[in-house]
Amino acid sequence: MANVSVYNMDGQEVGTMELNDAVFAAPVKENLVHPAVVQHLANRRQGTQKAKTRSEVSGGGIKPWRQKGTGHARQGSIRAPQWRHGGVVFAPVPRDYSFRMNRKEKKGAIRSVLTSKLQENNLIVVDKIEFDDIKTKNMVRVMKNLKADKAYVVLNGADRNVFLSTRNLPDVRLSSAGTLNVYDILKYKTLILTQDAVKTIEEVFA
Q1: CATH code for the domain of 120
Q2: pTM of structure
Q3: What is the pLDDT of residues 45-101, one digit of tens each?
Q4: Strand pairing of 13-19 and 2-7?
Q5: How far apart are CA 122 and CA 120, in angstroms?
């Protein structure tokens, strides 16, 4: 098992921790990581786009002029697509873009990105992150002490003070171990895990 240093919020090393090789030393499978990212982005799409076809726009119930003898091209409705205010030919309609991945594949993708973060030395383990009050500068100080600019911070559970102290930082994202996802791990350069979060992740993904 790999040993990693454990830091406190002041950036000081306070111990070491063994990581489960089944999670943090797994084979990196890009063929699982890519569909996991695509699924995450697809599931975030609202799919609420809508435009009207010629059957849905108002008007156009009668033929605008007779078929022959006017010198104009034949027309059947003033709401045909070539007319101003006409319907859209292949109009988008509300749809669900989400799709599902096999559970084993999703776990394999998570293990792959966790392993790559460790191999790239972009994984930091801290003993705990907790604040007595809600101030953005609290999290700014922690990021500065850990020398992490763009970071994905994963706690074991929800902490209101930490969440509210983080939400104004554009380059820091806070999450819980239960909502860990491939997209955010890849998006942010540094992955910061608390010790409790590491244990939960190992229980779920081992």
Answers
A1: 3.40.1370.10
A2: 0.82
A3: 999 999 999 999 998 888 999 999 999 999 999 999 999 999 999 999 999 999 999
A4: antiparallel
A5: 5
Share of the chain above pLDDT 90, in %: 90
Question: Are 77 and 111 in the same domain?
Answer: no
152 bridge partner residues? 173, 191
38 and 51 housed in the same domain: no
Which tens digits make up the pLDDT trace of 18-32? Answer: 999 999 999 999 999
Whether residue 53 sits in one domain with residue 128: no
Sheet holding 123-126, edge to edge: 13-19, 2-7, 123-126, 190-194, 151-155, 172-176
Same domain, 107 and 169: yes
Q: Which two three-digit tokens encode residue 159?
A: 């902490």
